[in-house]
Automatic annotation (TrEMBL), chain A:
The chain crosses the membrane at residues 12-35, 55-75, 87-108, 146-172, 184-207. SUPFAM superfamilies: MetI-like. It is found in: Cell membrane. PANTHER family: ABC TRANSPORTER PERMEASE, D-METHIONINE TRANSPORT SYSTEM PERMEASE PROTEIN METI-RELATED. InterPro entries: AA_ABC_Transporter_Permease, MetI-like, MetI-like_sf. Residues 13-205 form the ABC transmembrane type-1 domain. This is D-methionine transport system permease protein. GO terms for cellular component: plasma membrane. GO terms for biological process: D-methionine transmembrane transport. Keywords: Cell membrane, Membrane, Transmembrane, Transmembrane helix, Transport. It is a multi-pass membrane protein. It comes from Gemmobacter aquatilis. Its main location: membrane. Belongs to the binding-protein-dependent transport system permease family. CysTW subfamily.
UniProtKB/TrEMBL annotation, chain B:
The lineage of its organism: Bacteria, Pseudomonadati, Pseudomonadota, Alphaproteobacteria, Rhodobacterales. InterPro entries: AAA+_ATPase, ABC_transporter-like_ATP-bd, ABC_transporter-like_CS, MetN_ABC, MetN_ABC_transporter-like, P-loop_NTPase. Residues 29-268 form the ABC transporter domain. This is Cell division ATP-binding protein FtsE. The keyword Coiled coil does not apply. It comes from Gemmobacter aquatilis. The keyword Nucleotide-binding applies. Keywords: Amino-acid transport, ATP-binding, Cell membrane, Membrane, Nucleotide-binding, Translocase, Transport. It comes from the Bacteria. GO terms for cellular component: plasma membrane. Belongs to the ABC transporter superfamily. Part of the ABC transporter FtsEX involved in cellular division. Important for assembly or stability of the septal ring. GO terms for molecular function: ATP binding; ATP hydrolysis activity.
Amino acid sequence: MSPQMIDRLIAAFFDTVLMVSASAGIAVLAGIPLAVFLVTSGPGGFFPAPRLNRVLGAIVNGFRAVPFIVLLVALIPLTRLITGTTIGVWAAVVPLSISATPFFARIAEVSLREVDPGLVEAAQSIGASRWNIVRHVLLPEALPGIIGGFTITVVSMIGASAMAGAVGAGGLGDVAIRYGYQRFDTTVMVAVIVILVALVSLVQGAGDTVVRRLRAR
Amino acid sequence: MTGAAVIPLPQAGAQAASAAQAHRIAGSVQFQGLGKTYTSSAGEVQALQDIDLEIQPGEIFGIIGRSGAGKSSLLRSINRLEQPTEGRVLVDGEDIAGLGEAGLIRLRRRIGMIFQHFNLLSAKTVRENVALPLRIAGVQQAEAAARVAEVLRLVGLEGKEDTYPSRLSGGQKQRVGIARALVMRPEILLCDEATSALDPETTLSILRLLRDINRRLGLTVVLITHEMSVIREICHRVVVLERGRVAEMGPVWQVFTRPQHAATQALLAPLTRALPEDLSARLHDRAEPGDLQVIELPFAGEAAPDLAVLAPGLRLVQAQVDPIQGHAVGRLVVLAPQGFDPATLSAKARRLGHVAAND
């Protein structure tokens, strides 16, 4: 591999990391409140809003049903509105985070639902407000599951970011398609695959370690 | 609300504690025509009907019944974890049905609660679990730390502050639960099957702790259980629920000695020891020559039995007498020669039958 190609790979690696971390950050900031709302606003929840709950649930399902490559193209007008462009790292962050948020919210929702209702009752009995229950009971008790779900979300986002490369977002996927596939450069293809495997292993390993530490308490 | 201020520190001594008890007036609960109807897919279920009860400040009040009798609904209506559909609940004379969210939170801070499965937060240490009520009530850190240390000493958990609940035994977990319930210095403590998940020895130690807390702090304890032995151990008064209604109610020794309702008798059955197997197998109605009489001498609420009634020639084969609130409850079973008149033992003594004197 030429030195230029190595530089190109390094730059692409950081583009991917930037795309994924920015989108993952947005997915956490939006996904956790969404998950809390989905859990607490349903029937029997303590912020009852059944109609809004159904509407949001339907929207989440809708986004989850659309394949990422389709969403990527369908969201182009919105992307242009927000970032002013449709190419580059930041243009990829818009569809990536919009696709990851409902995915992550559903996983976090499952963990929040698994919190023992007895703990919520105990918190009510000590005079906790509903907000206190979310903050001191639901979120801390569901944390191991939420972090496990976040790990899965990040790994699937690394895969999705390669697709974003196909529409000009840059990153490792872009290099693999343009050099590895279109110019038949097998070395570049193999290098990209090795880097992606290493990146995914790193993320999964880190997530697993944190979850194991939390569960060991 | 004088309740919160008068609780002495544990080391303050018995004198201060009894003074606190004498001054304590808060901690009463009244149920007036209470009813609860659930609507399920199978139709309407009446969990509670026409409950009229009054729980006195400072007493240990037991609610017993078989599963599904409505115990849990009744207990949870005191801090409104359960919303009754009819009637009223008064805490210290105040109808709690009208409380808004802020009022309800203030009420719940006056009422501690402990649970069968402890319900401790697994992500928090013992200290953090116990401190949580203070933290959300906005109590200052220095004072909160002192109060957490005080209640942990009271329940005997010094040295476990930084342990997570998963590392504790069942009895220790319940002690954390009790500490968490007491840290707001409540006037009422609700116990929801608090010993049902514990082994007999731990059950006894937790019950002793509850009785100790009731005496020292003078707070009202309301507990539900399906075990009569728990009632016998610590309660002053008991109500027996059956199908959502009051079957009977009264001082514990009275309910134990003169159970009126079939439900009470069924609940008492496990505590009454049957005749020894070898004796009951040989028991027959008609006296044969050389047989001995089997005589039962029951005690139901008298002073402790005077053994002088046992005449020479009588043989004691079984004895079970427990003091309940100062009343002897139980029975003696004796063997007597033919011709002995059971009435000389006591008016209540009766002949169960005869056995051959072959041992």
